[in-house]
From TrEMBL:
InterPro entries attached to this UniProt entry: ANF_lig-bd_rcpt (IPR001828), Glu/Gly-bd (IPR019594), Ionotropic_Glu_rcpt (IPR015683), Peripla_BP_I (IPR028082)
Coiled-coil residues: none
Protein's organism: Lepeophtheirus salmonis
Molecular-function annotations in GO: ligand-gated monoatomic ion channel activity
Top-level taxonomic group: Eukaryota
Main localization (coarse): membrane
A GO CC annotation given for this chain: membrane
Keywords: Glycoprotein, Ion channel, Ion transport, Ligand-gated ion channel, Membrane, Receptor, Transmembrane, Transmembrane helix, Transport
Record-given protein name: Glutamate [NMDA] receptor subunit epsilon2like [Acyrthosiphon pisum]
C-alpha cells in the first residue's frame, strides 16, 4: 500500500481549508478563487478545497472561479479577469509578499477584495509584511519550538498506547516490533532483511485507533481520522489590522473548532475589513439593475398568484413580478411604474429560468414588469404598439417573451440568438407511384 503511514498532531491542510470555507459560509460568499505559489503541497491544497466544496454541496453551494499558481506578475491577470472578490491564498511568507505586491498592481487589494490565508503565509510573528493590506484574514496555529517540544509527551503517549494495544492482541504474539529493514530493494530467501516493514501497516492501525485524554482542560480527547490526522482541531482566526503604533499586525479575533457544529465551528469577534471598514464586502462585483418587461406565453412565461398566506413567491411558484393595474397607451417607462400602481404576481417558465441564470452568471438585479399594452406588437401607420412599442420607446432595458422574428421587427430592435426553434411545418403524405 502507498498510503501515508503517519500520525499528525498538528492541524492538517484539510483542517485549514475547512476553517477558511467556514468564514465564507458565515458571510454567504459563494464564489471564490484559489491562489497558490510553488510551495510544497500546493496541489494538495487545491485538491483539499475541491474535496471540501464537494462535501458541503448539499448544505452550501460554492463556485470556484479560478485556480491559479502564481509565479510571476503576468499570472495575476488571470485572477483579475475572473472578477473574483474572495481569494484563498496558500504560499510561503516570502512568496505571499510577492503575490500581494502583484495583486496590488492589478487593483486586487481594494475595499471589495478579501484575502484569506493559510498559516504558512502568516508565519510565527505578529508583524505583517509591508505588502499585506489591512483587512486580510487568516487561519493560524502555534508552530514555535516551545510548542513543538510540548507535543513530545503527547506523541510518546500515543506511541506507548499503540504498542500496548499491539502487544496485548493475541494475534500478534508471534511478531515483534523490531523491523529488520534493508536499503536494498531486492530481497531473497537467503536475505531476511526486507525493504518495507511487512507489519508496518498493521502497527499503524493500532496507533491510529489510540484515544487519550487531552492534557488541556475542557479540550476533546486526542484521536485520529483514518488518514492519520487529528479528529478534533482548534485553529486561530487572524485579522490584519492597525496595531498600537499604527503598523499592521496579525491579531487573533476568534477560533475555529472542528468538533463544534454550531456556526460551522466558527466563533469570531469584530473584524477590520479591507479599507479599514467595519462592514464586510459583498463578495461579488457591484451589481447593476435592469428593468425587464415581459408578456406571458406559457410555457415560456407563466403567471400565478403568490402564496395566499405569506404573500411571497415560493420556489414552486417562480420569481416575483409585477402587473400594471389597468392598461394604457401612455409613454410611462417601466422604471417609473410605482409599486402602488401594480399587482404582485409570480412568474415562472423557461424564459424566467434563463433570466435567473443570466442574473447569477452576469451579476445583475432585475425588476420584472409586464408590458402595459399586452400585445406582441405590429406597425400601424408608422407606429408600433404592444410589446414592440415598449422596446422601441426604451421603456425597458430588455423584454422576455416568445416573440416571432420578422424583418420589420428586426429592423428596429435587437433579438437574442434563438434558443428554441418553433414554427409551422406543413406535412404532406408521401405517395409512391405518383
Amino acid at each position: 500500500s502507498k498510503m501515508r503511514l503517519q500520525l499528525q498532531l498538528a492541524p492538517s491542510l484539510e483542517h485549514q481549508v475547512a476553517a477558511m470555507l467556514s468564514i465564507l459560509v458565515r458571510y454567504n460568499w459563494k464564489q471564490f478563487s484559489v491562489v497558490t505559489s510553488e510551495i510544497a503541497g500546493h496541489d494538495d491544497f487545491i485538491q483539499a478545497v475541491r474535496d471540501k466544496v464537494a462535501e458541503m454541496r448539499e448544505h452550501f453551494s460554492f463556485k470556484i472561479q479560478v485556480e491559479v499558481k502564481v509565479t510571476s506578475r503576468e499570472e495575476m491577470a488571470i485572477v483579475k479577469h475572473s472578477e473574483t472578490r474572495i481569494l484563498l491564498l496558500y504560499s510561503t511568507r516570502a512568496e505571499g509578499e510577492n503575490i500581494m505586491r502583484w495583486a496590488k498592481e492589478f487593483d486586487l487589494t481594494g475595499n471589495s477584495y478579501v484575502w484569506i490565508t493559510t498559516q504558512s503565509v502568516i508565519g510565527e510573528g505578529r508583524e505583517a509584511l509591508p505588502e499585506f493590506p489591512a483587512g486580510m484574514l487568516g487561519v493560524n496555529f502555534d508552530t514555535s519550538l516551545e510548542h513543538l517540544v510540548k507535543q513530545i509527551p503527547t506523541a510518546m503517549k500515543v506511541f506507548a498506547h499503540g504498542v500496548e494495544a499491539y502487544l496485548s492482541d493475541p494475534q500478534n504474539k508471534v511478531t515483534d516490533l523490531v523491523p529488520e529493514l534493508s536499503c536494498n530493494m531486492t530481497t531473497s530467501a537467503s536475505n531476511e532483511l526486507e525493504s518495507r516493514w511487512s507489519f508496518g501497516e498493521r502497527f499503524h492501525r493500532y496507533l491510529r485507533n489510540v484515544t487519550i485524554k487531552n492534557s488541556e482542560f475542557a479540550k476533546p480527547h486526542i484521536d485520529f481520522l483514518p488518514d492519520g490526522t487529528l479528529k478534533s482541531v482548534e485553529l486561530k482566526i487572524m485579522n490584519l489590522r492597525p496595531g498600537v503604533w499604527s503598523n499592521l499586525v496579525w491579531e487573533e479575533i476568534g477560533v475555529w473548532q472542528s468538533y463544534k457544529k454550531e456556526s460551522n465551528g466558527l466563533d469570531i469577534k469584530d473584524i477590520v475589513w479591507p479599507g479599514h471598514s467595519h462592514v464586510p464586502p459583498q463578495g461579488v462585483p457591484e451589481k447593476f439593475d435592469l428593468t425587464v418587461g415581459f408578456l406571458e406565453e406559457p410555457p415560456f412565461i407563466n403567471l400565478s398568484p403568490p402564496d395566499p398566506i405569506t404573500g411571497r413567491c415560493n420556489v414552486d411558484r417562480g420569481v416575483p413580478c409585477r402587473i400594471p393595474n389597468g392598461s394604457s397607451g401612455n409613454a410611462t417607462s417601466g422604471a417609473s411604474i410605482m409599486k402602488n400602481d401594480t399587482t404582485s404576481q409570480c412568474c415562472s417558465g423557461l424564459c424566467i429560468d434563463l433570466l435567473a441564470k443570466f442574473a447569477d452568471d452576469l451579476q445583475f438585479e432585475y425588476d420584472l414588469i409586464r408590458v402595459e399594452d399586452p400585445k406582441w406588437g405590429i406597425l400601424i401607420n408608422g407606429k408600433w404598439n404592444g410589446l414592440m412599442s415598449s422596446l422601441v420607446e426604451k421603456k425597458f432595458d430588455m423584454v422576455l417573451t416568445s416573440l416571432k422574428v420578422n424583418g420589420e421587427r428586426e429592423s428596429v430592435i435587437d433579438f437574442s440568438a434563438p434558443f428554441l426553434e418553433s414554427g409551422t411545418t406543413i406535412l404532406v403524405a408521401k405517395r409512391t407511384g405518383i
